[in-house]
Amino acid sequence: MVNDSEARELSGDWNIHRAGRWILQHGPKRVVIKQGEHGALLIEARRTFYVPAFPLESVFDPTGAGDAFAGGFMAYLARTRSVTEDNLRRAMVYGAAMGSYAVEQFGIRGFDGVTLERIEERVRAFQDLTHVSLAQSLA
User: Fold this and answer.
1) H helices of the chain, where?
2) Looking at residue 53, what DSSP letter applies?
3) By the 8 A CB rule, do 21 and 53 touch?
């Protein structure tokens, strides 16, 4: 797990997708690249998954958002004990939810009163925000 600046510096490539592929070529099976207000990418050999940052009307302090994302991501994987494709994607959403709490206040105050129930609510809001039904044809 790296941020976009670290991925670019490590690879020597300004393009974040190529930077992620470069990192993969050097050993890891997957790489998560945090992109701040632009969300995060999960890059694997055969696919890339993107999760946007949760949209907020007010961002007070972005310090620590990436660490909160990483903590939410890893905590979800530890809690579920699974690294399936679907679970990794869910972990990305939980990470984004935790990052959104981090930026709402100064320091750790963004986590005051955050419960599992509130996290689940934000994850559901995230799902509502990003879910598109493709059941109907475009015709």
Assistant:
1) 4-11, 16-24, 65-80, 85-102, 116-130
2) P
3) no
**Predicted confidence (pLDDT) per residue in 68-103, tens digit:** 999 999 999 999 999 999 999 999 999 999 998 887
Task: Please give the structure tokens belonging to residue 45.
Answer: 């050999």
Phi and psi at 32, nearest 5°, equal -105, 125
> Considering only CA atoms, which of 122, 132, 131, 4 is closest in space to residue 55?
122
Q: Which residues have a catalytic role annotated?
A: 67
- pTM of the predicted protein model: 0.85
* Rounded CA separation 67/64 (Å): 5
Can you list the domains of the chain with their CATH numbers?
A: 2-130 (3.40.1190.20)
